[in-house]
Amino acid sequence: MFSQKKIWGLFLFILLSMSLNGCNAKDQLPKGVFKTTWQLVVIGDSSLFGLAEAYGKQIEKDNDVIVEIKDYAMPVLRASTVLEVLQTGKSNNIRLATLSDDLKEAEFVVMFTNPLGSIDPENPLDFESCFGCDTPGACQPEVFTQYEADLKAIWEEVIKLRNGKATVLRATDIYNPLVSSWKTCNIFEACDICWLNMSNAARSAAESYQIPFLSRYDAFNGLNHEEDPVEKGFISDGEHTTKLAEDFTAQLMGEMGYAPTMLR
Fold first, then answer.
1. pLDDT for 89-109, tens place per residue?
2. Residue 230: pLDDT above 90?
3. Could you tell me which residue, 1 or 237, shows the higher pLDDT?
4. C-alpha to C-alpha distances, 122 to 115, 165, 172, 227, nearest whole angstrom
5. Among the listed residues 71, 74, 206, 212, the one whose alpha carbon sits nearest the alpha carbon of residue 150
């Protein structure tokens, strides 16, 4: 006889698989059969402020469920910091103390963490000049190798914590709110390379586990990355997103479907 846990897992698998084909729970499952709460964990730096609430509402709208939010978006959150707490259970950031437990129960996980702590001494990363008005130093793909490795290790830990349960995993990168200043300072081309290589590292890490990737750099800045998200109303304070941008990102994630990323 099937246990309640196995039945729940079967229903989730069926529901999410149908969502990939453009169907949602409300339309495809018999009325009253699938009414439950899903948990969403968002892990990110301040560029993900507000996304947990927006994406949670998008999931609820698309699937007729209740979403419980666990928001781990916080200032300057580094991939190395997240990896440390997942591997050792220890962190100087008290807010991360419950991350592993929340990931064990999360049907949805979204992540972007920054590369500032992912440093290879032989290929040090140097792109902070892009936040000012100077040409960045080392931004070639090789300097993001450690960052990519850290992201891969984080995803591996997430998968272990989920222990084979159906899970929707989503990876993303960071937009550029500084288009105007980059052009004024004549550093646009050099800094675009930095952002693109950072994005490529995050994409490559996600694709290693068949995790769908949403490029906010492309979505906010256009494929040539010259579009200014400030002019689109996406930036609130020169750096962080507005509700319009958060809803836009959530909509794009919703359009990616709800099929489980990992079933092993």
1. 998 899 999 999 999 999 999
2. yes
3. 237
4. 16, 39, 27, 34
5. 206
- On the question of pLDDT at 218 being above 50, the answer is yes
Query: Would you tell me how many other CB atoms lie within 10 Å of the CB of residue 264?
Result: 6
Do residues 78 and 118 touch, judged by C-beta distance below 8 A?
Answer: yes
Please tell me the distance from the alpha carbon of residue 196 to that of residue 141, in angstroms, as a whole number.
9
The answer to whether 165 and 9 are in contact (CB under 8 A) is yes
> What is the 3-state secondary structure of the chain?
CCCHHHHHHHHHHHHHHHHHCCCCHHHHCCCCCCCCEEEEEEEECHHHCCHHHHHHHHHHHHHCCEEEEEEEECCCCEHHHHHHHHHHCCCCCHHHCCHHHHHHCCCEEEEECECCCCCECCECCCCHHHHCCCCCCCCCHHHHHHHHHHHHHHHHHHHHHHCCCCEEEEEECCCCCCHHHHHHCCCHHHHHHHHHHHHHHHHHHHHCCCCCEECHHHHHHCCCCCCCCCCCCCECCCCCECHHHHHHHHHHHHHCCCCCCECC
Domains and CATH numbers, the chain: 4-255 (3.40.50.1110)
Using 50, 70 and 90 to split pLDDT, how confident is the model at 69? very high
Distance CA 207, CA 152 (A): 9
pTM value?
0.87
Average pLDDT of every residue of the chain: 88
Residues 101/64, Cβ–Cβ less than 8 Å:
no
Residues in the chain, total: 264
